[in-house]
Specification:
Layout (H helix, E strand, L loop, with lengths): L1 H21 L5 H44 L4 H14 L8 H19 L26 H15 L7 H17 L5 H34 L8
Helix pairs in contact: 1-2, 1-4, 2-3, 2-4, 2-7, 5-6, 5-7
């Protein structure tokens, strides 16, 4: 079944390439960009749910820490009960942020596999801007790896809790790791990753505007969000 998903991704990318041919600008790079936009639009509802869940968990973190410090060594069972009560009071499901990730992962891995072994039928159209061939490993000028690292950092910075030492360390380590990965995979995959991040930054900006309204509403209601 997973291989069928990979084949479907490759077929969809091939179809988009033929669409660019009909537009008179046949190019695999453009097809990858269009494909990335479509994937982002499809996954947006799940991403939105995940981001809102992360936001609410961040808002409740100080209260959860207070409960843990109060009951951890005295009554662990009561500690769990109090934390669950806090979730219910604020209408928060702690697992809500995990489900979207579980749904997205097979899609993203299949897309990764499809691009990693994609058959560029017309090599002349595999050229994109400064990239001679999107099927070749890496970028001769290291522009894609740098962009991948920079956009990964910017997207992570929008959601990172800088007070958390672990999150702060990941904020700097993950972009470097992604940048290195982009030097070891076909340039087409690097282009996809950069485009995915750019769209993710725009998406996060929209979500942040929504969560800002939620934060203001919580502040007015004394820190609780009881909307049913």
């Amino acid at each position: 079944m997973f291989q069928k998903l990979v084949d479907f991704m490759a077929g969809a990318l091939d179809w988009l390439y033929h669409l660019t041919l009909q537009m008179g600008i046949g190019n695999y790079g453009l097809a990858i960009i269009l494909f990335t936009i479509i994937i982002k639009v499809i996954l947006y509802p799940l991403s939105l749910k995940q981001m809102k869940s992360m936001f609410m968990m961040q808002q409740l973190a100080p209260q959860i820490k207070e409960i843990q410090e109060k009951y951890k060594n005295k009554d662990p069972q009561k500690m769990q009960q109090k934390i669950m009560e806090l979730y219910r009071e604020n209408n928060v499901n702690p697992m809500a942020g995990c489900l979207p990730i579980l749904v997205q992962m097979p899609i993203l891995i299949a897309l990764y596999r499809a691009l990693l072994h994609f058959n560029y039928k017309n090599v002349a159209h595999a050229k994109f801007l400064w990239i001679a061939n999107l099927s070749h490993i890496g970028d001769p000028y290291f522009i894609l790896p740098v962009l991948a690292a920079a956009t990964t950092y910017l997207q992570s910075r929008l959601t990172t809790n800088m007070a958390d030492q672990t999150q702060r360390m990941m904020l700097y380590m993950m972009p470097l790791f992604i940048g290195w990965i982009c030097t070891t995979v076909p340039a087409g995959l690097g282009l996809y990753w950069v485009m995915f991040n750019v769209l993710g930054i725009g998406q996060q900006y929209l979500v942040n505007k929504q969560t800002l309204a939620m934060k203001e509403a919580m502040a007015k209601s004394g820190g609780s969000r009881k909307d049913g």
